[in-house]
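Changelog note: in this version the structure field was regenerated for every chain. One regenerated record is shown below for reference.
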Amino acid sequence: MQLIQGVSLAVFFSSALAVPATLTPRAAALSDLNGKFVAKGKKFWGSCADSNTLGISQNVAILQSDFGQVTPENSMKWDATEPSQNSFSYTGSDALVNWATTNNKLIRGHTLVWHSQLPSWVSSIGDAASLTSVIQNHISNLAGRYAGKLYAWDVCNEIFNEDGSLRSSVFSNVLGENFVTIAFTAARAADSTAKLYINDYNLDSANAKVQGMVSLVQRVNGGGTTLIDGIGTQMHLSAGGAGGAQAALTALAASGVSEVAITELDIAGGAASDYTAVVDACLAVSQCVAITSWGVSDANSWRASTTPLLFDNNYQPKAAYDTVIAALS
């Protein structure tokens, strides 16, 4: 696989690719979480990453041993890639893509259209034609740069209210629901091979938000052209909150998409029973193709105080890791 041209990564790789010799015996004896999940017929178990965590040797060693895919945590978002109009910056995203290709990891692009981490020059647009052109240009450049290199893109992210209606954003306020079709059409044109996903949080039970998602996907795909290939449920769960996962995945799959995936998994408390409930839910739904954890270690989690991941602050596997491995074995 080709590295992105024109990027100096010598300093980055000198630290990020160094596999530490100081891992404890317990951490060195990990059990290939991704391989065991793939052996059950799934595509991958991945993690988010970016240059900050790719510079931590313990983190990199676990990514290499136990995860089959990476999602950029922040480096592909609009504020990072097009901070001013038609002025693109790919330093962080190129570093992530180059690390992944060098290490034979799949990549989920994240994210093309999102109301958050959005530059003010975009959020202040009030004209439909201008906003349409801006969306198309952003996606053409960003998705086009990595065409053929990514497994999937989160094209639209977090566009729903909890009742299943469209969230108020510059995109919905100016273009209505049509911004979804505009974005997915542009993404398909920019990268014909990537799976195109719509992604959201609180799609964790058969609730109103799930139903709103299903209805929109069916409308967008109902015109004779399948634009949306997959639905991602983030699954940032509270402790004990995994009980509705299988019902949610089943309902999302009933939209007719070819894939559903758990895209940003973390669970407050990190209980083994909660993690195995999520794994069992994905295994039970044939269209559930993958799980991505939202980080490796609690040390780098956006929810660090809730200790939600499979590895603790010292990069040691927690009871949930061992239980998941046993369930997959």
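Spot check on this record: The radius of gyration is 19 Å. The longest strand covers residues 106-114.
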